[in-house]
Amino acid sequence: MTQTVAEPEHLRSAFDAYVADEKKIEPKDWMPDTYRRTLIRQISQHAHSEIIGMQPEGNWITRAPSLRRKVGLMAKVQDEAGHGLYLYSAAETLGVSRDQMDADLMSGKAKYSSIFNYPTLTWADIGAIGWLVDGAAITNQIPICRCSYGPYARAMIRICKEESFHQRQGYEIMMKLCQGTEEQKRMAQDALNRWWWPSVMMFGPSDADSPHSAQNMAWRIKRFSNDELRQRFIDMTVKQADYLGLTFPDPDLKWNEERGHYDIGEIDWDEFWTVVKGNGPCNRQRMAHRTRAHDEGTWVREAATAFADKQRARQQQAAA
Amino acid sequence: MTAAVARNDQALSQQDALYDYCLRLGDNALILGQRVAEWTSNAPTVELDIALGNQALDLFGQARMLLDYAGRVEGKGRSEDDIAFLRDVLDFRNVLLVEQPNGDFGQTVVRQFLYATFASALYEGLSQSKDEELSGIAQKAVKEMAYHARHNGEWVVRLGDGTEESHARVQAGLDALWPYVHEVFEADEIDLAMAEAGIGVDPASLKDAWLAEVTAVIERATLTLPETDWHPDGGKRGHHSEHLGFILADLQFLQRTYPGAQW
């Protein structure tokens, strides 16, 4: 990307043309401030979601029902921590520090995906999260692999590969439950009942209520509208649930021959906004947990810094 | 040497001894893995969360191989899961050290360091075992445990020689766990029978080298080697601390609540 044009308007139009041409923006390239801020918000929010998401799933590691499941879940939660780290690094290339992002998460200034404010009550919830939540996340994230911002796009390629493995693992957990005892089927059905609508809401408000969509599309941050992605997820998932023999908590769900898609009932956006604004079942618990872990770790981080300082001083002394 | 007495009047077949020996190794890995896994989403940094998760995964991997093999040695058709999820406290054979609570990060790091330093020496010996299966498992595990020993040893030094607070905390962790070290090196009839058969390693034979290695790290960390005349034991014959029952309640809850279900 050339930086020879002096006028911001010219820079801006050069930038617009550059991204419209499907070229990647790299950290040292000039970019509009809004582009930078949008990406910082989106990438850090995505990173925070990975980190907070470790809580509801981590909740079941010590109680996983077999050693194979335990190892699978432990590895999955670790992948999420790893995704959090790549994404924090991608956001750092835009000029925000990790400490700042941590602070914004804990002060409540930065958001994370609302889906993780729902509780994992039974083992089936681990299956449902993998199947539905990771399924929705992949639907959202595959187009981001082509995002105009290079570091984000590259991080997403690896993340999507791992997420698709998680999704299969989640579906396999559900399949085993649905082939199991009546109690296991009940668990599976109840998990679908509780996770379905929150998963559908993961795509965000309808296009009509999503003010930044057009700009983000033009900038190649976003490729498809929230409703298009939501529809893609629903069409894919309904068939998978049929195969499991599970039903949806939506009497209006039906195939629409004319559209070639499934129709669903009305989404309860009041619930969505209630959870976004902090009044979901676990918002307080998740934030308190994150803050406690951070606070309890302060002495360890301070010790690591103090030790590194001492080491440096000793090396300088030895060299002198 | 109370552990030896418990089995004195029983003639142990080599198969029984090997079964018990595998349980000891497998249970140490499983129970320590459970403890380490409790750190998930609770570590001081995301990087440390991942490092702890890696350790838990290594330990669970070792547990699976060892308990699966124990089941085959026993010859009653029990799977790794039957053995992990359907035994009660009295049949668990891990040492008390691995079931001790995480405490703060300093205490956890000390526990992992003390155990991994022992386990890497043990697995190094076992990699020469006449039992091919055990030797194969040990060859994989020795690399993992040597890494755990190094990683946690570095943290012992960093915390010991960090701030006043970190020094005090990690010393307190060391003081709390030191009494449990004794049991780790206590050889009983089963250990000795396995060592004699060229299958196992006499843990007592590892103690001097272990102590030298641990002392070097403790000195670098500016910590003090604790002195104690309290030497709790009993884990290897099923007499545990009160903690194990709660670990098992977590570990086994689903298998116990839904007997026979497949997951």
Offer a concise description of the structure.
The complex is a heterodimer of chains A (320) and B (263). By secondary structure, chain A is an all-alpha fold. Chain A has helices at 8-20, 33-58, 67-92, 98-107, 123-141, 150-178, 182-201, 213-218, 226-244, 269-279, 283-296, 298-319; strands spanning 254-256, 261-263.
What do you see in this structure?
- The complex is a heterodimer of chains A (320) and B (263).
- Chain A is mostly helical and 320 residues long.
- Chain A is globular.
- Chain A is 67% helix and 2% strand.
- In chain A, strand 1 (254-256) and strand 2 form a beta hairpin.
- Chain A has helices spanning 8-20, 33-58, 67-92, 98-107, 123-141, 150-178, 182-201, 213-218, 226-244, 269-279, 283-296, 298-319; strands spanning 254-256, 261-263.
- Chain A starts with 7 loop residues before the first helix and ends with a helix.
- In chain A, helix 2 runs antiparallel to helix 3 (67-92).
- A two-stranded antiparallel sheet of chain A has the order 1-2.
- Chain B is mainly alpha-helical and 263 residues long.
